[in-house]
Amino acid sequence: MRAMVLNRPKTQLLEASDWPKPIPTNDQLLLQVRACGVCRTDLHILDGELTHPKLPLIPGHQIVGTVVHTPLHSGFTVGDRVGVPWLGKTCQHCMYCQGGQENLCDQAQFTGYDLNGGFGEYAIADPQFCFPIPAGYPDEQAAPLLCAGLIGYRAYRMTQSSQALGFYGFGAAAHILIQLARFQNRQVYAFTRPGDEAGQAFARELGAVWAGGSDQPPPIALDAAIIFAPVGGLVKTALGAVRKGGIVVCAGIHMSDIPSFPYELLWGERVLRSVANLTRRDGEEFLALAPHIPIQTQVQTFSLEAVNDAIAALRQGAIQGAAVLTLN
Ligand SMILES: [Zn+2]
Ligand SMILES: [Zn+2]
Q1: What is the dihedral of CA 210, 211, 213, 215, to 10 degrees?
Q2: For a 10 Å CB count at each end of the chain, is N or C smaller?
Q3: CATH number among 3.40.50.300, 3.40.630.30, 3.90.180.10, 3.40.1180.10, domain 2-147+277-326
Q4: Ligand 1 center to residue 207 CA distance, Å?
Q5: Which residues of the chain does CATH 3.90.180.10 include?
Q6: Any idea what DSSP says for residue 290?
């Protein structure tokens, strides 16, 4: 099968490869990949910032595929459209798995990192960690729901009932979550790279009450902020923008070092936390909500072989919404 493969990190390019079609074990699905989202996490893997990928690796962890082969009692049948997220497998018996925090399982295996992902024509997946794709979403529009949506939703939940929300970085996740925020009558203040007027206009189009550069203060003190951009300096910025008791959530899997800051910025019971991965419950909740709102994703599509172009565009901040590979 055709696949785009990472042979060595830090080379920053995926290589076109003729890869053997995967053979599912007795408890795995075989999927024909229809679409796969490209995520900032893929950049961190390519750049060697996430340090232990399986190699060689087929990245891609926002897979929409059609079931070609299924074990008995998987809950899926041949022809079903299935979504495969970042959380590919857990041990299911550790303290975290048993305690509702399977996202923190030490034995977890991640799609497109520990396990081959969706930048190829076929993929195998554990059906227990797959989701049915809600009807009504074309393949390419469903793909970004699976990471930008799911992990973004987990970060959003951590802001509790905050009304005035700051989003630092207005990419794939933010463009999805602003729709949920508006549905819940919350106000979004969007921060982009300084000078990114197209990004700010995009945020306003989607209903941000204010949009500006991350070097600008918001017009009011925020109740909470989510940092999507992998920039450690934004932690200080966001803490400075939230009111007493406010919450700052770091939503990315990797961030540059956080500069030191005066305790005064955290004082006043401000809360700083990260969000790691996702649980299946996050996925079930979010994918039930998405068609109800309905969340609409804006995608820029690329062919499988053009994945390096998608990655370059994402790196430059040139994607409005989400980048998605489509396979025919
Ligand atoms: Zn992702
Ligand atoms: Zn576990």
Answers
A1: 20
A2: C
A3: 3.90.180.10
A4: 24
A5: 2-147+277-326
A6: H
